Amino acid sequence: MAICVLVWASVVGFLLFLLVRFARYSDGDFTLQWLEWRGKKPEEELFGKVVWITGASSGIGEEMAYQLAKIGSRLALSARRENELERVKKKCLEISQLSDKDILIVPLNLTHRSTHESATSTVLKYFGRIDVLVNNGGRGQFSLFVDTSVDVYNAIMKINYLGTISLTKPVLNHMIERKQGKVVTISSALGIMGAPLVTGYCASKHALMGFFNSLRPELTKYPEISVINICPGPVQSQIVQNAFTEDLSKKHITFGDQFRKMTTERCVRLTLVSLVNNLKEAWISDQPYLAAYYLWQYTPTWAWWLLNLLGPKQIQNFKSGVDANASFF
Ligand SMILES: NC(=O)c1ccc[n+]([C@@H]2O[C@H](COP(=O)([O-])OP(=O)(O)OC[C@H]3O[C@@H](n4cnc5c(N)ncnc54)[C@H](OP(=O)(O)O)[C@@H]3O)[C@@H](O)[C@H]2O)c1
User: Fold this and answer.
1) Does the first or last residue of the chain, that is N or C, have fewer Cβ atoms within 10 Å of its Cβ?
2) Low-confidence winner among 16-25, 85-94, 265-274 (lowest mean pLDDT)
3) What is the H or E stretch that residue 53 is in?
4) Which family does it belong to (predicted)?
5) Residues 237, 58: contact at Cβ < 8 Å?
6) Does 183 score more than 90 pLDDT?
7) Which domains does the chain show, CATH number per domain?
8) Position in ligand 1 atom list of the atom nearest CA 234
9) H or E element: which one contains 275?
10) pLDDT, tens digit, for every residue of 135-163?
11) Probe ligand 1: pick from 54, 152, 242, max atoms within 8 Å of CB?
12) Which residues does the annotation mark as catalytic?
């Protein structure tokens, strides 16, 4: 009897320990956390690899350039602002052993789809191959649907969704020829869940998830090609400043503070762990958002209950000019 009680107490104690650990310290899904501990390391896998990053002029893409430069990957950096890419390249060279020829700047607008094939040829001519494409470039949105012009939905789909799949096409053709490569797409928690104020952004990220989850089984003949979807929660970057609002000409004005968001460094580190371990989908977020992914996936009724509770508060915060997510804390 005493042994039985002891065993039960140990099991309950262990489960409680896991729960507290999850609530306090977890910032990635269980598989990702395990792989960060026991899986392949980015430093061992990415040295010398050719990685093409879109949206490399700020935020997550910029930080990814720095971490990959330190590891010794060769980089193609893309975004619209060439001067910002030059700045990122300069810093990459300062903090790493790379030399000038290891980093190629390829100015690119995701909405100019007719240029994507020639941009791919430029990278291939220079490096001879592309090992990893990181589809990171994109824009956010903060506005209520009832106030928002349909032009905003058109614009956000053209950048986040159509621009991304347009660039993926020529790169994937090359990977299929080589029978190897990785296509990593920075989707979002909003590629899985819904939320108020981001209807267009959320739709574009859901579209990406649907696209890449359907592309993956088309590539089963090529086991060395991986399609990897990364779903970060809030991360420190310029995304709020650059977000679309109700109409294309209006800038977002309520930035909020960033200190409650995951650091860009941590998000990129976990993205690289997901990449080298070929995770099909990775959830990367601090709490309380990480718990929401699990609610959304496994207990949608509770997730809807919570969203109905917090959604009106988020809208109220937004309308009164404070950070919409202030209601989570
Ligand atoms: N930060 C977050 O909380 C968060 C969470 C989940 C997912 N994400 C995703 O992470 C990715 C990176 O965003 P971020 O947070 O790092 O934001 P960011 O700092 O605003 O960076 C966005 C990048 O995308 C580029 N970009 C924007 N429009 C473009 C266009 N038309 N063509 C080519 N490049 C374009 C920007 O460069 P140029 O302006 O120079 O073109 C910039 O380099 C996005 O896909 C975003 O949806 C972010």
Assistant:
1) N
2) 16-25
3) strand 50-54
4) Belongs to the short-chain dehydrogenases/reductases (SDR) family.
5) yes
6) yes
7) 37-297 (3.40.50.720)
8) 3
9) helix 264-276
10) 999 999 999 999 999 999 999 999 999 99
11) 242
12) 201
Q: Which pLDDT band, with edges at 50, 70 and 90, does 252 fall under?
A: low
Q: Which of 178, 184, 197, 53 is nearest to 123 (CA)?
A: 53
SS3 state at 116: helix
Helix or strand (DSSP H, E) at 164: helix 164-178
For residue range 191-227, list pLDDT tens digits in order.
999 999 999 999 999 999 999 999 999 999 999 999 9
Nearest C-alpha to atom 44 of ligand 1 is from which residue? 138
Tell me the β-bridge partners of 206.
Answer: none
Residue nearest to atom 43 of ligand 1 (CA): 55
Instruction: Give the tokens for residue 20.
Output: 């507290």
Atom of ligand 1 nearest to the CA of 159: 31
In this structure, the residues whose C-beta lies within 6 A of any atom of ligand 1 are 54-55, 57-61, 79-81, 84, 108-111, 136-140, 159, 186, 188, 232, 234-235, 237-239, 242
Atom of ligand 1 at shortest range from CA of 60: 16
Tell me phi and psi for residue 254, to 5 degrees: -95, 100
Return the pLDDT at 325.
Answer: 78
200 Cα: distance to centroid of ligand 1 (angstroms): 15
pLDDT of 17: 83
